[in-house]
């Protein structure tokens, strides 16, 4: 009888264990099924509303950003007129930050509150999606501008975060791209010449801003140059190149020499000088409308497709 009871108890325990194991398996399966179902649920159709914004292949991708309401921003932060080298330096430093993380950018050009970043024709970064490229460039630039503010403005506080908008434009040929960059540099010259004369009339000529604006209405470049030279003895061509030409950023190989502590076999540790070439972002302030710059840097442009 005792033996029978023991056998009966073992059977009952075995049955209970089987039921618990089966219950755990069913619950786990249900959880897995639920998670899988949520990943491919009836709501997934909303992805069909996303648009394909992949940039056309074999085209240079230009991402240009501009400061939003920067006239107000410059006034409230008391930027020096007509050019604030602190602000220009911060813009360039922020652009360097963008290029450091995106090596597919072959050249960048900036002036005033704008910067253009040119991605190589063969770039496959972010699957060439315009929205991804633009938002990454603008967000990286904006955050860098705020992050490095103190390096250029010292104790002057940043009163509120600046804003930058962006756009994407495609250029299929080297000729198109060079014309785009020429357009931006010509714009730099036109704006800087006007601002130089305008603020010289105000700061040195004693005119009000309204009077200076009236004085310059209808004037051509030659007229503005004449005002600077004849009335203030200023030769515009001697003004800083960064103001007249803007800033060009390109990749160049740079030779670096470093000292390493090395231990040779059967010898004591010694300092060894090592020279190596590294790809670095270099800054230029020169003419990019003519041929000289492009002849000196032939590796920037890719071959046009026949």
Topology:
Elements: H1 2-39, E1 60-67, H2 70-76, H3 85-101, E2 105-111, E3 114-119, H4 130-147, H5 149-153, E4 164-171, H6 174-203, H7 209-216, H8 221-232, H9 241-245, E5 247-263, E6 269-284, H10 292-296
Antiparallel strand pairs: 1-3, 1-4, 2-3, 2-5, 5-6
Helix pairs in contact: 3-4, 6-7, 6-8
Organism: Takifugu flavidus (sansaifugu)
Keywords: GTP-binding, Magnesium, Metal-binding, Nucleotide-binding, Nucleotidyltransferase, Transferase, tRNA processing
Binding site for Mg(2+) 2: 66, 113
Describe this structure in words.
The protein is of the alpha+beta class and 306 residues long. The chain has a domain at 60-184 and 241-247: Alpha-Beta Plaits (2-Layer Sandwich), CATH 3.30.70. Helices cover 47% and strands 20% of the residues. The protein has ten helices and six strands. It has helices spanning 2-39, 70-76, 85-101, 130-147, 149-153, 174-203, 209-216, 221-232, 241-245, 292-296, and strands at residues 60-67, 105-111, 114-119, 164-171, 247-263, 269-284. A six-stranded antiparallel sheet has the order 4-1-3-2-5-6, sandwiched between helices. Helix 3 packs across helix 4 (130-147), helix 6 (174-203) packs across helix 7 (209-216) and helix 6 runs parallel beside helix 8. The longest helix is centred in the first third of the chain and has 38 residues, at 2-39. The chain starts with a helix and ends in a 10-residue tail after the last helix. Residues 28-37 have low confidence and may be disordered.
């Amino acid at each position: 009888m005792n033996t029978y009871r023991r056998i009966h108890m073992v059977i009952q325990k075995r049955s209970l264990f089987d039921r618990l194991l089966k219950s755990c398996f069913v619950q786990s399966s249900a959880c897995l099924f639920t998670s899988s179902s949520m990943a491919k649920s009836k709501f997934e159709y909303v992805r069909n509303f996303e648009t394909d914004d992949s940039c056309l292949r074999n085209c240079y991708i230009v991402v240009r950003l501009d400061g939003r309401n920067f006239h107000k921003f410059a006034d409230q932060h008391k930027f020096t007129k007509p050019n604030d080298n602190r602000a220009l330096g911060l813009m360039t430093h922020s652009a360097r930050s963008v290029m450091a993380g995106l090596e597919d950018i072959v050249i960048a050009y900036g002036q005033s509150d704008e910067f253009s970043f040119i991605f190589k024709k063969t770039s496959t970064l972010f699957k060439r999606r315009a929205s991804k490229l633009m938002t990454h460039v603008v967000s990286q630039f904006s955050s860098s501008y705020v992050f490095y503010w103190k390096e250029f403005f010292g104790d002057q506080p940043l009163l509120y975060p600046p804003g930058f908008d962006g756009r994407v434009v495609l250029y299929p040929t080297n000729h198109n791209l060079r014309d785009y960059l020429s357009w931006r540099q010509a714009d730099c010259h036109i704006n800087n010449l006007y601002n130089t004369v305008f603020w010289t009339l105000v700061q040195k000529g004693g005119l009000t801003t309204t009077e200076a604006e009236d004085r310059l209405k209808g004037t051509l470049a030659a007229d503005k140059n004449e005002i600077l030279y004849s009335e203030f003895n200023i030769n515009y061509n001697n003004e800083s190149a960064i103001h007249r030409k803007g800033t060009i950023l390109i990749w160049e190989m740079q030779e670096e020499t470093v000292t390493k502590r090395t231990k040779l076999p059967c010898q004591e540790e010694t300092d060894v000088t090592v020279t190596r070439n590294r790809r670095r972002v270099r800054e230029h302030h020169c003419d990019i409308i003519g041929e000289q710059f492009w002849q000196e840097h032939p590796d920037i442009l890719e071959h046009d497709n026949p």
